[in-house]
Design brief:
heterodimer, A: alpha+beta, 5-stranded mixed β-sheet, 21 helices, 10 strands, B: alpha/beta, 6-stranded mixed β-sheet, two-stranded antiparallel sheet
Chain lengths: 497, 367
């Protein structure tokens, strides 16, 4: 994909094969994985495009690249692995890394690939995304050629401003609904008269198709806005169906939406996925396909870097692998079931060992069915919380410092789950597409105690207006109570409820 | 592949440039961050370049890991601090743009619509440089190109059939000879000198000097962009004038009276000895709070400007910074004496917001 010089060396190829063999023997089921060897510039570039060098052009990738390039130059951060969920999987190795590093990354990557294939939350994921992204790139580039860079980029900015308004569970809901609505519009074939391919352009001229499509869209907009389902969390879908978008705008929004859905499972399983990969690379490197004595110190140094914990931030690698190991240990010792859970005696709990040896099976089960929220919810218990010295911290305005607030287990878990719910995004639904019978769009923020950022909210409303072309409102709340913010194309108005 | 990233990167830089330009007037007024010594680039904190989203606002706390009692401070809250401050409040910076001073001057020019300077045509100095650019068949032996000559020789002997692979002797003849040839490149060079003069008498306080510093930063930036190899001389004066270095210029504080003519006199002396006006574009900037010792001295000044300065300089500028003690009389006197002289620029700089206007009136004439 990146030219010939990205092929692995024979030595690395050998290790890829060996490590894959070990991984498969221990139960991992990665799909075919293609490794490429790149230098740091290429890797930064690929990372800036989030793994897809063929993506559509946009300035934020440039910004990302500059950030990465700078932090590389100053030695602040090195990306050490990059793998993309596709069939086959693509993974990139950094040419400058030493062999210990490379082997570790290879093992890490195979565990990720296994996770992509076997985790339920990835089950609906598009495995031809590499091609799709390239197609998206082509579409956007041709739109740019046609309409100019500024106009297209400005609209992409608008779309990106709302790209988090998707329903991450939509792919798992009634399949009919999720896909059918799209067919109506996407599938221009439906509008076509039957024709041989070489005659197609004459029998179905583009003008005719566009006209037909407009009629169809208009009809849909008409009846669907009136009957629009309320509480639709997939706001992007709602916009695609009902907003008066031009053809090219529709295409761009559709692209942004499909990419947002593609990336959602990765955000949803960050802790578990990284934990899983780290668990396996550590297992393989130190046990199943052990490094030599000469290599182990380098490995440890490297490992310490990955799982380093910071006092103010949860490191997903660290918490992931620790929680998996904790879970393995519990099931190995039979620390599950009603008798264990109801046991109140501390020392008995500590010394509990029923020789159940079900740890490994449990881990594979966890990898198959959980995402971060359910994973934390199911396994993070009070013992773990204390073992790992977790705490909640808060900003103290008086001393202008962050201070430890509590070590109360329930509060910590609640905060952690809050942080992970809906990938950290507020839940926002379409309440009414024809608010006040004036075709105004009313959104509702399902308030759970944390207010929206006011400045961003105002700007986002403006971007929504750009698509909806009628006033846009959002109901939300803050410490002072419920309120409704309206943007009518020229100014904002905040109204207390 | 790199071509693609280049285009995204340049789109991003364009956005940053646009932001810098938009905020430029603010930076001019609060120029402190710019005046870093010896650096070619300046770092400008910009408001975030980020997509606005519906997202949670004050993310003040979170879950952490480690030792500590309740109430203990948690160290390095980098991320949460950033998140917390990201907002429409002032002072947030998500981004630090690195801009060369040259680029900054360009932006300044665009923003203030400054005309390019038409330097004194006849006064260009030319320096010449020798470049070896080609190969000739004639030339001095000292410039003989051995490799080329050998190659020609070899070619000829093979073609003519005299070459014997077992006895590869090559005998160059005259037509084989190749010589390096050179060209003399002429670089038109314009040079310029800036004289900064400042009143450091008791009435000029810190604030006044700050205004001068900010203003002169932008003048430097602009003139440096217009000329290659600019020289700067600094003169301070109260009742007597002395030449100082840049550091001292901005820091020195004297007490006592003011004789503006002393500064002009010194500047003239330096100009006459070091910068013949036939070779140099000369700029004089004088900053003062407008108080002069006597009207006699003021008259002497005006006479000096008229007879000795204006015929030789590109521009004589007077910037009057407001101070509590200054009467501002000198500005009025100058304005009366040179009501619309094309080489005299004057501006009152009463606070930081007035710097932009001053720069515009100093440099807006394309002199």
């Amino acid at each position: 994909m990146l030219g010939l010089d990205t092929r692995l060396t024979d030595e690395l190829n050998y290790y890829v094969k060996e490590i894959e063999k070990v991984a498969r023997q221990s139960g991992l089921e990665p799909c075919t994985t293609i490794f490429e060897l790149v230098d740091y510039k290429q890797l930064n570039e690929i990372a800036a495009y989030m793994g897809f060098p063929t993506r559509y052009p946009h300035w934020r990738f440039g910004m990302e690249y500059e950030k990465l390039a700078k932090s590389y130059t100053y030695g602040l951060a090195i990306i050490y692995e990059m793998v993309i969920n596709n069939d086959p999987c693509y993974a990139y190795l950094l040419r400058a890394n030493d062999l210990v590093y490379q082997k570790t990354v290879i093992a890490h990557v195979f565990a990720h690939c296994d996770f992509f294939m076997k985790n339920f939350w990835f089950s609906k994921s598009n495995r031809k995304m590499l091609n799709n992204m390239a197609n998206h790139g082509t579409v956007v580039r041709s739109l740019i050629n046609e309409l100019g860079h500024d106009q297209v980029e400005a609209f992409i900015d608008c779309c990106l401003s709302v790209e988090n308004l998707i329903d991450i569970h939509a792919p798992f809901k009634e399949k009919k609904k999720f896909d059918r609505e799209h067919e109506d519009i996407i599938n221009t074939d439906r509008l076509k008269l039957q024709a041989k391919s070489y005659m197609d352009a004459y029998i179905n001229p583009q003008d005719y198709l566009n006209a037909q499509r407009k009629i169809l869209e208009a009809k849909q907009t008409q009846d669907s806005v009136l009957n629009a389902e309320t509480d639709e969390q997939d706001v992007l879908n709602f916009l695609l169906l009902h907003a008066p978008l031009k053809n090219w705008e529709w295409q761009i929004l559709n692209i942004i939406r499909s990419e947002a859905y593609y990336f959602a499972p990765q955000a949803q399983t960050k802790i578990l996925n990284e934990g899983w990969a780290t668990y396996w690379h550590s297992k393989i490197m130190t046990d199943l396909y052990p490094l030599s004595a000469a290599e182990i110190v380098d490995y440890c140094d490297h490992y310490a870097g990955i799982v380093a914990s910071s006092p103010t931030q949860i490191n997903p690698y660290k918490i992931g692998i620790e929680l998996l190991r904790y879970c393995e240990q519990r099931w190995d010792k039979g620390k599950f079931g009603i008798s264990y859970l109801e046991c109140e005696d501390f020392s008995e709990r500590q010394n509990w060992d029923k020789q159940a040896l079900k740890g490994r099976d449990k881990l594979f089960e966890v990898r198959s069915i959980h995402n971060d929220v359910t994973f934390i919810d199911a396994f993070l218990d009070e013992d773990f919380c204390h073992q790992h010295k977790m705490f909640l911290y808060d900003y103290d305005p008086e001393s202008k410092a962050y201070k430890i607030n509590t070590r109360d287990f329930k509060a910590i878990k609640r905060s952690l789950l809050d942080q992970l719910t809906n990938i950290g995004n507020p839940v926002i639904v379409v309440k009414d597409g024809n608010y006040n019978n004036r075709q105004e769009l009313l959104l509702q923020h399902k308030f759970t105690g944390q207010a929206l950022h006011h400045g961003y909210t105002l700007e986002t409303l403006q971007n929504l207006y750009r698509m909806w072309k009628r006033p846009v409102l959002i109901e939300t709340a803050d410490d002072d109570g419920r309120k409704r913010i309206r943007y009518d194309g020229s100014s904002h108005r905040v109204e207390k409820l | 592949m790199p071509i693609k990233m280049d285009s995204d990167l340049s789109r991003f830089h364009k956005i940053v440039r646009g932001k810098v330009k938009k905020e430029l007037r603010k930076f001019i007024a609060n120029g402190e961050l710019l005046a870093r010594k010896g650096e070619k680039t300046v770092k400008i904190p910009l408001p975030r370049v980020e997509m606005p989203r519906f997202q949670y606002g004050d993310n003040k706390g979170g879950v952490g890991q480690g030792d500590g009692e309740i109430g203990d401070e948690v160290k390095q809250p980098q991320q949460s601090e950033e998140e917390q401050q990201a907002g429409d409040k002032q002072g947030e910076h998500g981004l630090e743009a690195e801009v060369t001073i040259e680029e900054l001057a360009q932006l300044l020019g665009e923003e203030l619509e400054l005309p390019n300077i038409a330097s004194k045509g006849k006064d260009t100095v030319e320096s010449s440089q020798v470049r070896y650019t080609g190969i000739h068949k004639q030339g001095p032996e000292s410039l003989r190109h051995f490799k080329r000559t050998f190659r020609e020789s070899l070619k000829r002997s093979i073609i003519s059939g005299v070459y014997d692979a077992d006895d590869p002797v090559i005998l160059p003849i005259k037509s084989d000879m190749r010589y390096r040839s050179f060209r003399r490149l002429k670089n038109p060079e314009t040079s310029a000198v800036i004289f900064y003069m400042m009143d450091v008498s008791g009435s000029m306080g810190e604030l006044q000097k700050k205004l001068v510093r900010f203003t002169s930063f932008w003048i430097d930036a602009w003139l440096n962009q217009q000329y290659k190899g600019i020289e700067t001389r600094y003169i301070v004066h109260d009742a007597v004038a002395q030449e100082v270095d840049k550091d001292k210029f901005y820091r020195l504080r004297e007490a006592g009276g003011t004789l503006i003519s002393s500064a002009y006199m010194l500047a003239l002396d330096i100009m006459r000895s070091d910068y013949p006006h036939s070779d140099w574009n000369i700029y004089m900037f004088h900053f003062s709070d407008g108080d002069n010792w006597s009207s006699n001295d003021t008259n002497a000044c005006i006479k000096m400007i008229n007879d000795d300065i204006l015929p030789y300089v590109n521009l004589f500028s007077y910037g009057q910074v407001e101070s509590r003690y200054g009467s501002g009389q000198f500005f009025r006197n100058l304005a009366d004496a040179f009501p619309a002289h094309e080489r005299v620029a004057m501006a009152k700089i009463k606070d930081q917001d007035a710097i932009v206007g001053a720069i515009k009136s100093f440099l807006g004439r394309g002199k």
